[in-house]
Amino acid sequence: MNKNIKRVALLCLMLMLSFFVFQCHSAKEISKTVNDKTFTLTADLKGLDKAFLVYFEKNNAYPDGVRRDTIWVKDGKFTFTDSVNDYKLYFLNVLNTRSWETEYNGRKYTSSTKADVNRLWFIAYPGAEIKCSGKVEEYMVDASLSDGRGVNQDFTRIQEKTFPLIDRAHALRFITYTEDLTEEESKKLSDSANALFKQAIDLKKEFAKSNPKSIAASYVFMDGYYRKYFTHDEAKAVLEGFDTETLDGTPFYDEVNQRIAAVENTKLGMQAPEVVTNNTLDGSEFKLSNFKGNYVLLDYWGTWCGPCMAEIPKIKEYYQKYSDKNFVVVGVNSGDAVPKWKKTVEDNGYNWEHIQTTSENNLLVPFNVTSFPTKILIDPAGKIIYSSNNATKTDMYAMLDAIFKKG
């Protein structure tokens, strides 16, 4: 009996030790997974006298569509940690922009210069230890960044060249908005500001061309393509110059690659690309190809977009006008918090199909949507027959009338 008790006790002890080892191993694995996705930015900015900064990020999962993080600052020093799955651009609003008040129709409005050089920009990636040192001036962050892969060293090089130019351009623009100048004086300052902006853009374009293996250059290129710094042919040439072995599979390179391909693949008469998402009003799967046999109007919109909201009543009118025909409208929302998007649809009786683009599933890329509103009309065979981005302007509503009245 004693032997049996000893055996049972020994077995229990072995099981407990195995469980403990398993738990420790699991904890290490979990910790390793978390750490592998975590980056840390350690900053020291002379002249930064704020007690804290707030990190803002658009995120539709939050009730108001914005994720916020408080970053505590002491003597200009702070640390920011977050988790990422891949290379990702971050910016922190550090300084105020140049702002002024204007009055129109008896109401006062606050205007400001663009929020760019007053921010701290950096590129994070899993496991990155990013160091930042520098100073803050009245309206500009003058910072030097570094990390183990050299990504932010590259990013610093282009910022050091362009930020002073952009800051001077903003200063000139500010004078034209706030001081009592003659028309000639105002034009002279505006021309000088535009020349500085162009100089900064040219430097960014050259940076993208001259650094074919750089993650930072691929971001600068993607951003410049979105902002139309490049013609389509210029962009194709820059893209062909990038080192695909180094950059293929990285997010900035992949997005601009897909956008440039989309221009080639979504011309009038071409087959529309597939669009698949579960970001629908009820969470069910949406597939664009399921609507073959119908005329499908894709309407890219957001509640923040005045022209979008101004045109939606016309969309609603035509949806109701031809809802008994083979006519489908798909609203593609961008930039709204999920609750606001759904409430706007429900409150206004937008009773057509609705999907939403997100950072995880960017529905703007397949058709290279860069402005709002954008409208794409697809015929029953799945071919694109209208695009508001087309250089030749056509009246889409007259086209719809011709299609359905003839039918």
UniProtKB/TrEMBL annotation:
Q: What GO MF terms are annotated?
A: oxidoreductase activity
Which GO BP annotation is one of this protein's?
Answer: cytochrome complex assembly
Read off the InterPro entries from this record.
Redoxin, Thioredoxin-like_sf, Thioredoxin_CS, Thioredoxin_domain, Thioredoxin_ResA/DsbE_sf
Which SUPFAM superfamilies is this protein grouped with? Thioredoxin-like
Q: Which stretch is the leader sequence?
A: 1-27
Task: Report which superkingdom the organism of origin falls in.
Answer: Bacteria
* Example of a GO cellular component annotation carried by this entry: cell envelope
The subcellular location is:
Cell envelope
Where is the Thioredoxin domain positioned along the sequence? 266-405
Arranged from A to Z, the UniProt key words for this protein are:
Cytochrome c-type biogenesis, Redox-active center, Signal
Q: Which CDD domains does this entry report, sorted A to Z?
A: TlpA_like_family
Q: What is this protein called?
A: TlpA family protein disulfide reductase
Q: Which organism is it from?
A: Aestuariibaculum sediminum
